[in-house]
């Protein structure tokens, strides 16, 4: 099948960690790929690390600092060897990546500290190891009639150092700006039926490995889709679409058959981790539709994301983010003087932490802290508290939940809330809305979050 310009069509299939971690998953993947090939399209696969391996590698990098990573390294090695055996593949395929993983770990131990560059080099191995097995399995299953090619994503995507990016972000939350490359799409079409590459990883101008931020494989998939100007991007995961809320948190969640790019973006930004928000901003300019489907139930329909979406009077979905570190700062007598605010933001900058200002009054600020790209994870919050305490009257760190109503104007959402004829919890900490005015957020205590979600879902989702 070709598109209007007689270019062969590509579909991009992204398989997340929850979709590639068993033999059954892989049998389904082979079927999904074959179905596409039979329809005459070429298939580009973006492959994540096996389930939970990225977290293990993050821990491995930390343990390497004081040379205590051996046990975990063995565990990770074992896990991949077992996957090779489940797929009936020769485990020696893994050797080059296991060797380079060990070398990267040794570099951290020799260095004695963990830099974002060394962390990226270690963590990238999750995708390198898994995709090597995935490509070989697929090549064997599809046979010689089909050309299957493994590609190194670091040769496809080079990050751009954004002026306002700190060093952590440059290595751990890098950004690329791929544009359609018709010649490349044509070359690949002439040589291959299926290409398979890694999600989550890219390189920088110096050829070093960088990461695209946690959950970044969706972003990679959107990069491949933009590069090929694909006719469709399919996100294959462990649920059959985007739901009115996280179906693993609330059984009553309903599948959304179709939503607009903008609504999906709001949901993704607000915590619906089934899709990464950056993925949407990459494909939207090219109007590439996205479909979210369930690898474990491939025949079940999914959610289609396309189009503008029309104004709705109803809340369409509710997103939830839990265990968000939140700092409440009492600024004292001088309140929000530019000088105090500047000091506060300088501390965030020095610690290379991101933050989102959730609310402010004359004397206080409530900020959500983004720690996932910090090399030192949770410890850094204590550092932050100590530093902020030097300039604020009091500093309170809590782990809270943010609940966001998506799909109608915030004033409309607020009106619906006020109609709820049930007891709402006392602790609605605050609310805010974005400039797009299509969502309304609340900060609530983490302990109560799921009860509140249930209540809101019952009353607001129709
Ligand atoms: N609104 C939502 N609709 C569907 N899934 C959601 C939603 N919000 C959160 N999720 C969660 O997203 C998960 C899928 O994302 P993720 O675990 O990152 O999968 P993958 O490993 O395939 O990338 C689901 O299992 C579900 O718990
Ligand atoms: N493996 C990376 C990238 C990713 O997006 O994975 P997944 O597709 O399993 O969410 C992570 O865990 O962050």
TrEMBL record:
InterPro entries: AceGlu_kinase-like_sf (IPR036393), Asp/Glu/Uridylate_kinase (IPR001048), Asp_kin_monofn (IPR005260), Asp_kinase (IPR001341), AsparK_Bifunc_asparK/hSer_DH (IPR042199), Aspartate_kinase_CS (IPR018042). Residues 10-294 form the Aspartate/glutamate/uridylate kinase domain. Keywords: Amino-acid biosynthesis, ATP-binding, Kinase, Nucleotide-binding, Transferase. Pathway: Amino-acid biosynthesis; L-lysine biosynthesis via DAP pathway; (S)-tetrahydrodipicolinate from L-aspartate: step 1/4; Amino-acid biosynthesis; L-threonine biosynthesis; L-threonine from L-aspartate: step 1/5; Amino-acid biosynthesis; L-methionine biosynthesis via de novo pathway; L-homoserine from L-aspartate: step 1/3. It catalyses: L-aspartate + ATP = 4-phospho-L-aspartate + ADP. Its EC number is 2.7.2.4. It holds the Pfam family AA_kinase. Belongs to the aspartokinase family. This is Aspartokinase. It comes from Kangiella marina.
């Amino acid at each position: 099948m070709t598109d209007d310009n007689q270019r062969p069509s590509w579909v991009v299939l992204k398989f997340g960690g929850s979709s590639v971690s068993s033999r059954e998953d892989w049998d389904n993947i082979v079927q999904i790929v074959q179905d596409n090939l039979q329809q005459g399209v070429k298939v580009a696969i973006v492959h994540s690390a096996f389930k939970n391996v990225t977290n293990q590698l993050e821990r491995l990098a930390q343990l390497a600092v004081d040379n205590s990573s051996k046990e975990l390294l063995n565990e990770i090695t074992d896990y991949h060897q077992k996957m090779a055996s489940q797929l009936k593949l020769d485990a020696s395929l893994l050797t080059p990546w296991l060797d380079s993983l060990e070398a990267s770990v040794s570099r951290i131990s020799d260095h004695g500290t963990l830099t974002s560059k060394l962390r990226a080099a270690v963590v990238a191995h999750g995708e390198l190891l898994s995709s090597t097995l995935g490509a070989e399995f697929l090549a064997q299953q599809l046979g010689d009639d089909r050309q299957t090619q493994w590609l190194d994503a670091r040769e496809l995507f080079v990050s751009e150092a954004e002026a306002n990016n700190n060093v952590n972000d440059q290595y751990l939350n890098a950004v690329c700006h791929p544009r359609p490359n018709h010649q490349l799409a044509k070359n690949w079409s002439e040589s291959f039926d299926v290409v398979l590459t890694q999600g989550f990883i890219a390189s920088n101008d110096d050829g070093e490995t960088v990461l695209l931020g946690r959950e970044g494989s969706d972003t990679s998939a959107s990069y491949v889709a933009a590069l090929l100007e694909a006719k469709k991007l399919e996100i294959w995961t462990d649920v059959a679409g985007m739901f009115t809320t996280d179906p693993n948190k609330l059984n009553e969640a309903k599948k959304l058959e179709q939503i607009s790019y903008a609504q999906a973006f709001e949901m993704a930004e607000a915590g619906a981790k089934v899709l990464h928000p950056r993925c949407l901003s990459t494909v939207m300019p090219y109007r590439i539709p996205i479909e979210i489907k369930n690898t474990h139930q491939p025949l079940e329909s999914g959610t289609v994301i396309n189009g503008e979406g029309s104004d709705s009077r109803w809340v369409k979905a509710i997103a939830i983010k839990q265990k968000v570190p939140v700092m409440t700062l009492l600024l004292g007598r001088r309140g929000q003087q530019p000088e105090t605010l500047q000091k506060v933001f300088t501390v965030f900058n020095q610690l290379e932490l991101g933050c989102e200002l959730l609310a402010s009054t004359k004397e206080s600020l409530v900020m959500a802290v983004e720690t996932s790209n910090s090399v030192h994870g949770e410890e850094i919050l204590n550092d932050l508290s100590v530093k902020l305490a030097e300039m604020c009257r009091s500093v309170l760190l809590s782990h809270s939940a943010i609940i966001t109503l998506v799909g109608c104007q915030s004033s409309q959402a607020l009106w619906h809330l006020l109609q709820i004829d049930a007891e709402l919890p006392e602790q609605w900490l605050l609310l805010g809305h974005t400039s797009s005015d299509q969502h309304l957020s609340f900060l609530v205590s983490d302990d109560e979050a799921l009860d509140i979600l249930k209540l809101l879902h019952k009353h607001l989702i129709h």
